[in-house]
Batch of 3 targets.
Target 1
Amino acid sequence: MPTELQLGSGDPATATVDAVVVGLSASEGDLALADGAVEIDTAFDGALAELLAVAGATGKLEEVLRIPTRGAITAPLLVAVGLGKGDPGPDAVRRASGAAARALAGTGHALSTLGRIDLTAAAEGTLLGAYAFTEFRSDAGGKEPVGRVDLLSADADAADALRVATAVATAVTTARDLVNTPPNALYPESFAARARELAEAAGVEVEVLDDVALVEGGFGGVSGVGQGSARKPRLVRLSWAGGASPRKKVALVGKGITFDTGGISIKPAASMDQMTSDMSGAAAVIATTVLAARLGLPVAVTATVPMAENMPSDNAYRPGDVLTMYGGKTVEVLNTDAEGRLILADAIVRAAEDEPDYLIETSTLTGAQMVALGTRTAGVMGTEELRDRIAAHAQATGEGGWAMPLPEHLRADLDSRVADLANVSGTRWGGMLVAGVFLSEFVPDGVPWAHIDIAGPSFHTGGPYGYTAKGGTGVPVRTLWALLTDIAENG
């Protein structure tokens, strides 16, 4: 069962809970209790920071120390978590709350004082840090996530803030669940069914094109990539009308390759299992569109999601093939492992037919993103103003993003011998930027657009940290949500 969040009240020192969470800050070698824990400190005769320092606490961000309270407070367990140096910002609170929630696994009921610092960040961090994907385990394989966490807050609008933060975190965990679902259970047909189920529960309109409709409709990219698999492709459209008075129209596009072998240009066996995450962009835009509907955001949001499985077979598309994309442009396939941009090109053209005010696409598009920016920083390309706006939101939410250029000279590298353009260039350099340039060819003039390459940030292969679990991360749901709320407020 997912962790339940509630607003706490009263004195945390006398709360009837199993554990209490307090924050620690480090400054110039001194250890200090963070704001919000004064009652707990009083119960320890004002010496709690000194006691924790003796026990080895340093206040380093995400450091967790568990100590028995021995009757000093009602709760039998105290969990102290580091917030780093200086005044903690929202992401420090989010990361500390995530680390504390993970340390509380197996606990029935806890109370956190971190909500007094930043309720939204504490709520998001707690739910995301407690996340565990156990659907395919016969045994949970460890302690259950903390059952309930009460968050203290003095904010006047605390109830509404908690409601929104819970909805946002739930959208992130929805995306994580989709990414973590193995490809034999999540393939185009079943993925489309999951998207329909989520959307209809939130009052979102759904349209699904099957493989026959895709061929008849001229979606040559999705059809070409998906033709090598027995599990045929789909294109899903989710539409939230934005309520009675939508202020803007936003098109979201997400890459939905449910498994990527590379096709005939097959990938090495090592780490190919991670290609179950190649639909992370699709998961993010589906979850974000449903979130917009659940919270009644006054922005019309439509997600266009191409779904395919890229497999080698006697029916697979080949290097050298020419595909006619939706809208009529032709693409020479030089590498079948550059399949994401082919299905996205179809989706971008279709999404642009709705005449959106903004068009945002996100995908696990290139390994070059990780070479350039590492595994935690997405590359953001596109129209400069929108690009910079998204990168700023990505950084503010803690999801990470960096504005990247689309140099005009790279377009010549995509010239084809036989078609309008090729799907890859003949050089290894600037692969992330080349992919962005390719996508830009399918965006109509005058439409503000951005591409977010999340190849690294969408899937974490190491041990958990902060509020990030191993596996699907849910990036960039919170970035997209921050952008949509910004658009709702500022256009």
Target 2
Amino acid sequence: MRIGILGLGRIGAFHAETLSGLDAVESLVVSDPFADAAKAAAERFGAQVADSPEALLAAGVDGVVVAAATDAHPHLITACVEAGVPVFCEKPVARTMTEGVEVLKAVAGRDVPVQIGYNRRFDAGFVAAHAAVRAGELGTLHTVRSTTLDPAPPPAAYIAASGGIFRDCSVHDFDIIRWVTGREVTEVYAVGGNRGADFIKEAGDADTTGAVLTLDDGTIAVVSNSRHNGRGYDVRMEIHGFADSIAVGLEDKLPLRSVEPGVTFPAGVPHDFFMDRFTDAYRAELTAFTEVVAGSRTSPCTIADALEAGWIAEACTLSLHEHRPVTLEEVRQA
């Protein structure tokens, strides 16, 4: 098949490399506002260059991967759907929930699949956890703990435009909690602090946060996030039930050091970058998209799925600012 890529920054170029190595992909068409980025990708992967999204859609593509700036996501998703071309778009659907809901309405009723990029759904550990929970191996769940700790914050300009740590970082935890447990969040309580980079506080954001989520069956989920984790990039999940407990991310590259006598685990070099931690997951995610394009599977992460994680982020942001519990119903009605 012939796949188009809109946006060739860090993640777009990474996706181009991944797609070029998939057996199902015969050729690529690439486009970026910066001509040099498109030219470099074309030379590296033998891709055709299109000078605009419209030209790319007219180039006979079977599917499109959107890795452009967030502000462009709504227009590009709807343009692809209106052209009848299946689309994969990195999260978020849009910068605001209002815009995201409008995108959902715009594509409703059209028989064109849209897949939103939440790569943890394709990580082997999270897939195994999802299967274990759905098979009832843990019995009734009572506690979930989800962690995302970055080794260092992104640049100040990124932070200022990110929408805040809950919308930018924690949203991955929110999505994977929903996916693994199969439950919805009903209420949140969030806290945050600033112990590191001043530019994060100046942007009105927190660099370290914690959130307690109440799920609709009474399960408690605890989410921990930070922009500062000196030992590396730490993504983990624990799922505890009355019959058993399991964990994702407890492997030799875990960026955590045990001080127990005689314990040598973990023994590997810690993960220090999200692309390192999730290389295989990204490949599986884009492989899934080729299956969506081929019509052999439905979208594994729809716009509606992505918006549900977004509503949790909105509730946590409000909770942090107002120092109180917030229900999901409250933010939906705001």
Target 3
Amino acid sequence: MKQQSISAPHSRRHFLASGSMGIGSLALSWLLNQEQALANPAANRPDLNQPALEKQQFDLTVKPTHHPPRAKAMISMFMQGGPSHLDMFDPKPMLQKYDGKKFPGDIKYDNAAQASSKVLGSPWKFSKHGECGTELSELVPGLSEVVDDIVLMRSMHTSVNNHGQSIYAMHSGRILPGRPTLGSWLTYGLGAESENLPAYIAMVDPGGAPVLGVDNWTNGWLPSLYQGTVIRPKEPRILNLNAPPHLSGKAQEKYLDFLGNLNQRHLNQHPGEDDLSARIASYELAAKMQTAAGEALDLSKETKATQAMYGIDDPTSAEFGKRCLISRRLIERGVRFVQIMTGNQTWDHHTSMRTSLPRACKRVDVPAAGLVKDLKQRGLLDETLVHWGGEMGRLPVIQNDAGMAKQGRDHNTYGFSMWLAGGGLKGGMTYGETDDFGHHAIKDKVSHSDYHATLMHLFGLDAERLTFTRNGAPQTLIDGQENRVVKEIIA
């Protein structure tokens, strides 16, 4: 029977926004936060088995890879602000030798007004840990317990000495805004293993959104289906997830059937709007999340021992520990990419470093190590990439030279550290070096493009072959930049 025409005085968006079922508002907040003109790409990501290109299909079905993957999922703990590699991961005896003396070289400051040429030796002791003997600071005792499972990268660089540009480089491949993030590219290229949860989830800090806000998990010009879904840092972690009691059950079912008919009719009338099918699929996913998300976010069934492993029994680390534990639960349930963000400038220690840096470390060190331990004991680490790091490190000289209590360090994007674990990587190794003062990466340098190419390789993807056609031209995460897969760190 031919369906009767429905005359509606409002737009579909007004219908969704005014609905009281909860699902509409969830979908809107998830998908329509960044409204942009609909693109009409001519071709999709290359078919991995045939040379011909097919019509773009926006969905989260599992896609074939370019080569056998080592990793299936990734958890990225992004330490926004610039953790000091010189005080945590990269010991430099020359800093101690020249402490308080003039730096014997050139320094590029970000904040010249507070700059000093005096060398600042690290106030914290380094010692060797694990069978590998990697030197780590006393600030990261948790990490020292899993050092044999990590690759410590000591030669990262982006060479753009400010937060925003370096964040864009680390997340999106270029220093300019508007491009899709790594999580969006991975979900676009690989699809999702869960039909009931988003493929890409961002977990924000209770202290506030990081610098650049939603740009940290944006889909850019990829379809909105590939944008990160934000989970709040406190309960309820997803707003409007469930319908009010008097509207649940059959009432909601009829409501969603009616909405589905409207969506499908609109899609039939506008067959060229490829992005529309992605939005419809996302609304359907939002409905499925009512049951699956609540269960995934519930920590009550985790043992006390597991919660203690994540530092949840300690008020200092409890909040970050909960987000790390939730990330493991999400990965177990088929989520592809989880991003755990620290707050705005949490690690930007221009001043009072002797108190602010230990405080930041105590908040995240035990939970991050607990995540590695837990994944390993559950047999998940081999196929889950874990990342810990920020967009920059710090300079070897004093900033704010107004007494020991006030001293800090300025930005340094020319050489800094981060660590990775699992997902086909070697464990118990360091890679790369900075100079004697920790200012510039000088050996086995790893750029943001190298980092992205390596991660994509571990997921079975060639970063230069995974394309999206925009304005008639193929776009990639690497975007034509020089890059290499860092094969030395791959097991």
